[in-house]
Amino acid sequence: MKGDGGLFAEVVARWRTKGSQLLGVAYFLVFIFSEKKIEAISPLLTGGMFITGCAMVGLATVGRLWCAQYIAGYKDDVLVMDGPYSVCRNPLYFFSFIGGVGVGLCTESVTLAAVVIAVFAVIYPPTMRNEEKFLLKRFGDVYQRYADSVPRFFPRLSLFHEPAEYVVKPKVFRREVFDAMYFVWIVGVLEFFEILTELRIIPALFSIY
Predict the structure, then answer these.
(1) Which of 105, 180, 129 is nearest to 13 (CA)?
(2) Whole-prediction pTM value?
(3) Where are the beta strands (DSSP E) in the chain?
(4) Strand 34-36 vs strand 206-208: parallel, antiparallel, or unpaired?
(5) What share of the chain is helix, strand, coil (3-state, %, to 5)?
(6) Does 182 have pLDDT greater than 80?
(7) pLDDT (0 to 100) of residue 40
(8) Could you tell me if 36 and 107 are in contact, meaning their C-beta atoms sit under 8 angstroms apart?
């Protein structure tokens, strides 16, 4: 295990939820009150961005559901190493990254898509390191061997394995399903407000690319 996460990781872990909420509100306000210059320059490009974004959001939703099938009800109590957790140690964050970039592309703004990537690059590496520190303390050598053989973030598909049967906790999994649909709901909300902006019901106060 390299590093212990450091002070920055602890600060991120403490403020990640509130900070993400504030950033989300700011992101939403920029989206609804801005005009996207790139749409006027190249409608074909923005159409491609939206289709690609929708595909990424769909993949992220399926991936997060897959992760929830394994982790729901077991987090912090059992070291899950099968299914999506056999190919990378943080598949939920991996699929969340795909979904976040997908949402960014669905805004049809290069600027907003780049912001999503930048935020993930700042927040999630220290978050993962901080969680690894906890898991190493919780599971010891078992987690260390797992960390040594399975990549942190980008999946290595050759490592994939899954059990013939797996016990799923329905009550917990049902709650996780709603979380997994998060990105789909965001795209729907963004599209609704984009229509209001295009109809001039909501004014475009500034322009972005």
Answers:
(1) 129
(2) 0.88
(3) 34-36, 206-208
(4) parallel
(5) 70, 5, 25
(6) yes
(7) 81
(8) yes
CA 189 from centroid of its chain's CA atoms: 17
User: Of residues 149 and 23, which shows the higher confidence score?
Assistant: 149
Nearest alpha-carbon partner for 95 in 75, 113, 120: 120
CATH number of 47-208: 1.20.120
Residue given tokens 């559901």 in the structure block: 65
| Phi, psi of 4, rounded to the nearest 5 degrees | -115, 15
What CA–CA distance (Å, rounded) separates 106 from 22?
A: 20
Query: Rounded CA gap, 122 and 58, in Å?
Result: 24
- 149, 159 contact by CB (below 8 A): yes
Provide the β-strand partners of residue 36. Answer: 208
Residue 129 contacts residue 13 (beta carbons within 8 Å): no
**Residues 6 or more apart from 28 whose CB is under 8 A from it?**
190
Per residue in 52-73, pLDDT (tens digit) is 999 999 999 999 999 999 998 8
